[in-house]
Specification:
It is built from ten helices and twelve strands. It has about 325 residues and is an alpha/beta fold. It has two domains: about 5-140 and about 275-320, 3-Layer(aba) Sandwich (Rossmann fold); about 140-255, Rossmann fold, CATH 3.40.50. The strands form three sheets. It has a seven-stranded mixed beta sheet, with helices on both faces. Strand 3, helix 4 (about 105-115) and strand 4 form a beta-alpha-beta unit. It is elongated. The N and C termini lie close together (about 5 Å).
C-alpha cells in the first residue's frame, strides 16, 4: 500500500508540533515529575505508539525520563483514579491523562487542582469540570464524518442501503463524537438497520454485536460503520463466520497494521490515520512547558477551545486523514 499521498499532511502536522513548543528553557526539570496515565491496552496504539513517542519527545527536550511516572488502567476507571492519586502523592508536577471514563475523571482533576497540578486531557475529553487545563486530541467529529463519507462513497449511491453501526465505548467521549460525526453524514442517506455501542472497545463484543445484527437483519447488509480497527476486525470475523461473501464495505480507525493488511486484502474498506507521533509529541511538549513553568506558546491552541459541559477548555486539535486502498 502506498502512503505517498499522506506525506504532505504528515509533514504539515510535524511542522505544527515543532512550532507548538519545545521551548525547553523554562526551568530545570531535575526535580520535576510528569505523569502519563493511559486508559487501556486492548487498542494497540497506547503501548506501541503513544507511550514511546511521548517518552522519546520528553527525553529530546532534556527531561530525565526516570522522572516519568507511567500507568495504564486497563480499561478500569477506579484503577485509573488510584493510579492518578499515586502519581500526585509521588510528586507529579503535571498529569497527562487519557481517561477511561471522561465523566469519572473529573474527580482526578479535582485532586490535582487541590495540589495545584495542571491536567492535560489527552486524546479523550474529561467532562464536567472547569478546572481542566488543556485538551489535546484530534477533531473527533471529523473522524466520524470521514468514516461516513467513505462509506457513502463505497456504497456508490445505492438506494435504501442497510448499514450496521458498531460504535465505540459509551463511556468514552470520543466515541460519542465519532458517532455524531458519522450520523451527520449518513442520516437520511442510508438505513441504519442496527446500531450498537461497544463497551471497552472490545473486538470480541463487536463480533457478538455483529452476529446479533446478522440474526436480526439477515446477511444482506450493505455496509458497516465500525468506529475503530478493533471493532472492524470483530465485525469482519462475525461476517466471515456467517458465510457472508463478498464482505460489504467496512470502516475503521487507527491505521493498525492488521487493518492495513485487511484493506490490502479487500476485507476492510478504509481506516482513519491519526498522526499519533504528532499527538504524543505535542502532549509531551505541553507537559514539559507546564512542568518547567515556561509560557505555553499561543500557537499551541490558536484560540481553539472545546466545551466539556462545564467550561470552554483550551484545545490543541490535530487533523485526521482517511486511508483506503486507493491512497
Amino acid at each position: 500500500m502506498r502512503f505517498a499521498k499522506l506525506v504532505p499532511t504528515l509533514v504539515l502536522v510535524g511542522f505544527v508540533v515543532m512550532a507548538c513548543g519545545g521551548s525547553g528553557n523554562g526551568g530545570t526539570t531535575s526535580a520535576k515529575k510528569i505523569a502519563l496515565l493511559l486508559p487501556e491496552s486492548k487498542t494497540a496504539r497506547y503501548e506501541s505508539k503513544d507511550r514511546p513517542f511521548f517518552t522519546a519527545k520528553l527525553k529530546s527536550l532534556g527531561f530525565d525520563t526516570n522522572n516519568l511516572i507511567y500507568s495504564n488502567a486497563n480499561q478500569d476507571a477506579p484503577t485509573q483514579q488510584t493510579q492518578a492519586e499515586a502519581a500526585l502523592t509521588n510528586g507529579a508536577s503535571v498529569l497527562v491523562l487519557d481517561p477511561v471514563d471522561g465523566a469519572a475523571a473529573a474527580a482526578i482533576v479535582a485532586k490535582a487542582k487541590a495540589k495545584n497540578v495542571p491536567v492535560i486531557s489527552y486524546d479523550r475529553l474529561i467532562l464536567g469540570t472547569a478546572d481542566l487545563n488543556y485538551y489535546l486530541s484530534f477533531d473527533n467529529a471529523a473522524v466520524g464524518a470521514l468514516q461516513g463519507t467513505a462509506l457513502l462513497t463505497a456504497l456508490n449511491g445505492k438506494a435504501n442501503a442497510k448499514v450496521v453501526m458498531i460504535n465505540g465505548d459509551p463511556a468514552d467521549n470520543n466515541a460519542k463524537l465519532f458517532k455524531q460525526g458519522a450520523h451527520s453524514i449518513l442520516d437520511g442517506k442510508v438505513t441504519i438497520a442496527k446500531e450498537y455501542d461497544t463497551p471497552s472497545w472490545s473486538p470480541d463484543k463487536a463480533q457478538t454485536e455483529m452476529q446479533g445484527a446478522i440474526t436480526a437483519v439477515g446477511k444482506n447488509i450493505d455496509g458497516v460503520l465500525a468506529a475503530n480497527d478493533g471493532t472492524a476486525g470483530g465485525a469482519i470475523a462475525a461476517m466471515k463466520s456467517a458465510g457472508i461473501s463478498p464482505l460489504p464495505p467496512i470502516t475503521g480507525q487507527d491505521a493498525e497494521l492488521a487493518a492495513i493488511q485487511r484493506i490490502l486484502a479487500g476485507e476492510q474498506y478504509m481506516t482513519v490515520y491519526k498522526a499519533l507521533k504528532a499527538e504524543a509529541e505535542a502532549a509531551a511538549t505541553l507537559a514539559y512547558d507546564l512542568a518547567t513553568g515556561a509560557a505555553v506558546p499561543s500557537s499551541m491552541t490558536n484560540g481553539k477551545t472545546t466545551n466539556n459541559g462545564a467550561a470552554d477548555i483550551k484545545s490543541v486539535l490535530l487533523t485526521p486523514v482517511a486511508v483506503t486502498k486507493a491512497n
